[in-house]
Amino acid sequence: MNHRLSNAYKTDSFLIARIPFLINLRPVRLNIQPLSGLTLAMPIINHFGSGLFGVALLVSASTPGTPAPVKPGAVYSITRLGGVMKVDRFQIATIQAGALNNSGQMVGRSEVYLATGLEMHAMVVEGAKMQDLGNLGGNRSEALAVNQAGQVVGISANHAFLFSQGKMQDLNTLGGAVSRANAINAAGQIAGQAETADGSLHAFLYRDGKMTDLGAPDVDFSKATALNDAGQVVGIFGYWTNRKDGLAWHPDDHAFLYDNGKMQDLGTLGGRMSQAFAINASGQIVGWAENADGAKHAFIYRDGKMSDLGVLGWSGSLARSINTAGDVVGVFGEDAHYQGGVAEGRAFLYRGGRMHDLNSVISKEALAAAGVVVLTDAKAINDRGQIVCAGEDPAGVSATFLLTPVEAKALDAALANDPPPAMPGWTLTALGTLGGDSSHANAINDAGQIVGAADTNLEYPESSGGRAFSLGGRLARDPYYAHAFLYADGKMQDLTVLGGNDSEANAINSSGQVVGQVGGLWGRPFLYSDGQMSNLGYPGGGLSRIVAINASGQIAGLSSPDPQIGGKNQAAYFRDGKLQEINFDEFFGKESGAVSITGMNDAGWIIGGSYNFMTRQGYSFIYHPEGWLEFIGIYSSAVNAAGQVVGQGTAGPNGQLTHAFIYRNGQYQELNIFGATYSAARAINASGQVVGSFGTSIASKEPAQGHAFVYRDGQALDLNLIVGEAGLAAAGFKVLYTATGINSRGQIVGTGLDLKGHDLAFRLTPPLENK
User: Fold this and answer.
1) Looking only at Cα atoms, what is the longest distance across the chain?
2) DSSP 744-762
3) Residue 367 gets which letter from DSSP?
4) In the chain, what is the straight-line distance between the N-terminal and C-terminal CA atoms, in Å?
5) What Å distances lie between residue 32 and 587, 592, 620, 652, 664, CA to CA?
6) Burial code of 369-408, b = ≥16 C-beta within 10 A, e = fewer?
7) Which segments within 509-616 are labelled E, that is strand?
8) Mean pLDDT throughout 11-31?
9) Is 29's pLDDT higher than 50?
10) Are 547 and 556 in contact (CB under 8 A)?
11) What digits encode the pLDDT tens for the residues 32-65?
12) Is residue 450 within 8 Å of 431, Cβ to Cβ?
């Protein structure tokens, strides 16, 4: 008999409702409890990350236009800008930030999707007060800059406009069809770009009622992005010819400074491209530029020199605004390889010669009180130090926030206490390879022995496409044959394969016994013990993947049917000297899907999931040695001796977020990994310390675009910040992007990118272990 369970559970900040799932109750023991204490709703998900539960989310947040409560020692007062405002026939729910003046007036646009299409209105926002500036015709306008007198410029009906004294004025063009105003100074001078009579796009300076073409010397395209009160203009110039439709940049575009009738090329950081976005009263210019590796980095140009502001260990950064004091704001994160430079990153403040993540400068409690999950982009900073930031609220909705410094001393102290670029005493070690380019580590035991797979110097035939392997949740390919390795006492030992060219070691127990498979992702399972490798057999007549071995020598994994026969994956369990299958049909019925096993602890608990592609039903579970299943609401990755299970679950009203979790006895704890929209826990030790990876978007399930973390004592630490840029480079790494194992001594293993861009296994040892 099938039963459908449904209930609703209310917590302090949200409502989880309508939770249906269909199970077969014959021999199943369930442990299902209300999901309490979570900050985000989380449905059960299957091995492949698909949500099973339907979730409704009701989030309480601070009232738009009202600063969140400020506690003693707070750094910023945080105000959510915008709100719900009826304008003609639509409502405004969010505001996209544009620019900020010294009075705290912010300009931007509202966006509303109607049955008739998208409408955008230029807006001025000051706290809860919003003013719709209208348009020059049609249903789209956007405000891009505002001066201290409250004069606003932007674009409407494909023409640049000036809004002053309650009226919107069309600034026309340079003889063509389109124009755009990007900046205005205290004197009312305006800079932007406009089409000429011959169809070219040129930067312009509008003053005394006249639009002046700034030209494009030696090139055919220019665009002004900002100007200061002295009339100095900055922007981009390059080649418009042969640009693809919709592409607003060219590989050889450069930042420029226009001063006293001359346009000066500001150069790059060693690469091909650069773009300037802001200039202050002192003539200091910020933007982004490519370095010699082709990565986009934020820069500041002063005293005739362009300097790299850094990336805080990520692959890209972009500086958007600079105030009179030289404070810079912008975004850092993943290099996106398109105009704008960085995709869905994190907001930064550059001050005192150092870049700071605003999410770490402001306390988690202060962000939560203001309804902020993460500040994703700092758009503008004024001379009062106020910052306009894009961010994300607990419902996963983009919002705009105004950060106002509470007290100069509090901000200075917070910046001084911001985690330094490196934490002393940690030791990073590259594990090397077996003669090829790459390696990756899968596990480490308490004796410090590490297992994984490493490239040999034997190459695959070019026609084969290379070796496929799974790494931190992604499928990758490598041109070299790889062998399972055991790393101990500073040496990497090649574990002899059983007549195959590929092997991988997936787990190691406290006795040094190693399990894995020969033949790639799926193959012949092996046990390596006392210097000997044994073939564990072919359960079900097909291939196998062994993922776990505990202190008692019990082994768990998966078996795949013979391709000639067909069927579904099943759990494999080694006992009584033989590898056998666990038949989950008695739990799920004959309609059950393929079973995935992800780990096992010393008590013999097996964790995994089941997913049926036909019915799209999935379950995550703990299989207890007594023969009963405990259903859990996360995709599981590992389980420790205390029965704590780690993995990741989906969150948000549409399940668009993926967050790391710990589960134990029906209780879920979400791990706040820097407010990142994606995080995954991959391993946990006996003390409850967790390691994994995190990123800035769901796309960061690709680990090479993420960062490795360790969660301990209630705090997440980015392994890249622990080591610092100098420490990474000294060990031969660009970035540590996933952590896959941690032992009771706190030693961490995982994989990073080396200086040549190859995957390389690492070991990170904490200070106490070094003594």
Assistant:
1) 92
2) TT--EEEEEEETTS-EEEE
3) H
4) 61
5) 16, 20, 12, 21, 12
6) bbbbbbbbbbbbbbeebbbbbbbbbbbbbebbbbbbbbee
7) 514-518, 524-529, 532-535, 543-549, 555-560, 570-575, 578-582, 594-600, 606-612
8) 29
9) no
10) yes
11) 332 333 322 222 222 222 222 222 222 334 566 6
12) yes
567-to-101, 515, 520, 539, 540 alpha-carbon distances in Å = 65, 25, 20, 13, 10
Supply the pLDDT for residue 217. Answer: 85
User: What is the Cα Rg of the chain in Å?
Assistant: 29
Using CA atoms, how far residue 210 sits from 12, 189, 204, 261, 262, in Å, is 58, 10, 10, 16, 19
3-state secondary structure of 768: helix
Residue for token digits 């209300």? 34
Would you call 241 helix, strand, or coil by DSSP?
coil
Tokens of 719: 């392994």
pLDDT at 416 over 80: yes
Give the separation between CA 767 and CA 771, rounded to whole angstroms. 7
Task: Give the SS3 label for residue 513.
Answer: coil
Q: Are 681 and 672 spatial neighbours (Cβ–Cβ below 8 Å)?
A: no
Q: Which residues pair with 484 in a beta bridge?
A: 453
Between residues 498 and 354, the one the model is more confident about: 354
Query: Alpha-carbon distance 377 to 384, whole Å?
Result: 19
Distances (CA, A) of 644 to 601, 649, 665, 688, 715: 10, 15, 8, 8, 17
Give the closest residue to 469 by CA, choosing from 449, 451, 455: 455
Decide which of 358 and 2 is more confident.
Answer: 358
DSSP state letters, 61-82: -PPTTSBPP--TT-SEEEEEE-
Residue 412 per-residue DSSP state: H
Mean pLDDT of the residues in the chain: 79
Contact 200, 220 (CB under 8 A): yes
What does the alpha-carbon distance between residue 677 and residue 679 come to, in Å, rounded to a whole number?
7
Q: What are the residues facing 599 on neighbouring strands?
A: 607
pLDDT recorded at residue 448: 97
- What residues form DSSP beta bridges with 439? 454
Which is nearest to 585 in space by CA: 567, 573, 603, 601? 567
- In this structure, of 618-627, 746-755, 758-767, the range with the lowest mean pLDDT score is 618-627
DSSP state of 495: P
Query: H-type helices in 559-697, by residue range?
Result: 585-588
What pTM value is reported for the model? 0.69
Q: Would you state the torsion angle of the CA atoms of residues 725, 726, 727, 732, taken in this order, to the nearest 10 degrees?
A: 90
Contact 270, 258 (CB under 8 A): no
Residue 104 reports pLDDT greater than 50: yes
Please check whether residue 437 is in contact with residue 455, taking contact to mean a CB–CB distance below 8 angstroms.
yes
Q: Which residue type sits at 13?
A: S
User: 555-560 and 543-549: which strand pairing?
Assistant: antiparallel
* Tokens of residue 563, six digits: 């391709």
